[in-house]
Design goal:
Elements (H helix, E strand, L loop, with lengths): L2 E5 L6 H20 L5 E4 L3 H14 L5 E7 L10 H9 L12 E4 L3 H7 L1 H8 L19 H11 L11 H7 L4 H7 L1 H13 L1
Helix pairs in contact: 1-7, 8-9
C-alpha cells in the first residue's frame, strides 16, 4: 500500500516546490504522521493538482490512497461532501470510483490555517505584528479567502519579513501547532482524521 498527496502550492520553480513540500511535511509530522508521511507532490496550481490526482487515481490500486490537498476557495456547505462542492464551484467531475475523503480542503485557503494559530504568528513575526488586524477565530472557515489573505498581509505590514505567498508562507506553515488548528478549523481536523487513518 502507498499513499500520495497532491498539494496545491509551490509555484512553478523547483525551489518553491521544495519549500512547499518541506512546510507541509513538518506540519504533518507534528500532526502524528512522523515516519509514515504520504508522498507529497507540490503541484503549483490547483488545476494541476487536480489533473495529477486524476491521472494517478485512474491507475492506482484499491489498496493505494491517492488524495489532493487544495484550497476550497469558498466556504463549504458540508465539509464531508467535497466532490459536490467542486462540482458547484469549479464544474469538476468526480472521477470514477473516487471518494469524498480523497479531497482534503484548506478552507477557504492555506492562509486560513496560518491565521488560525496566532501564537505561532506572534512568535514568528515578533512585536511588529499587528495582531488586532487578524480575523477573529470564531467561524474562521466561513471568511472569504480575500478577507483572510488581506488581513494577514495587513497585520504583518510593519514586519521586516511581511507575509507573502511563496517561501515565507511555507516557513510559517511549518511552525503551526496542529492542536491549535484542530480546535479552530473543522476542515483541518477532517484532513488529519483521514490521513491518520489512511497513511
Amino acid at each position: 500500500m502507498s499513499a500520495t498527496l497532491y498539494l496545491e502550492g509551490g509555484g512553478e520553480t523547483r525551489f518553491l516546490k521544495g519549500q512547499c513540500r518541506e512546510g507541509f511535511s513538518k506540519l504533518l509530522e507534528k500532526s502524528g504522521l512522523s515516519g509514515r508521511l504520504p508522498r507529497l507532490v507540490a503541484c503549483g496550481s490547483r488545476n494541476t493538482a487536480f489533473n495529477k490526482f486524476k491521472s494517478d487515481h485512474a491507475k492506482s490500486s484499491k489498496a493505494d490512497f491517492v488524495a489532493m490537498l487544495i484550497d476550497s476557495e469558498a466556504p463549504l456547505a458540508d465539509i464531508e461532501d467535497t466532490w459536490s462542492h467542486l462540482k458547484r464551484r469549479d464544474n469538476w467531475e468526480m472521477p470514477a470510483n473516487a471518494q469524498d475523503e480523497q479531497v482534503l480542503f484548506m478552507t477557504t485557503c492555506m492562509e486560513t490555517w496560518i491565521v488560525a494559530d496566532q501564537n505561532a504568528l506572534s512568535e514568528h513575526y515578533g512585536h511588529n505584528l499587528k495582531q488586532s488586524a487578524l480575523p477573529a477565530l470564531v467561524d474562521l472557515e466561513i471568511r472569504s479567502r480575500d478577507t483572510v489573505q488581506t488581513a494577514l498581509v495587513h497585520a504583518t505590514r510593519n514586519c521586516s519579513n511581511q507575509y507573502s505567498k511563496g517561501k515565507r508562507s511555507f516557513e510559517v506553515l511549518a511552525l503551526l501547532t496542529p492542536s491549535v488548528l484542530n480546535s479552530n478549523l473543522p476542515s483541518f481536523g477532517r484532513c488529519m482524521r483521514i490521513l491518520l487513518a489512511r497513511c
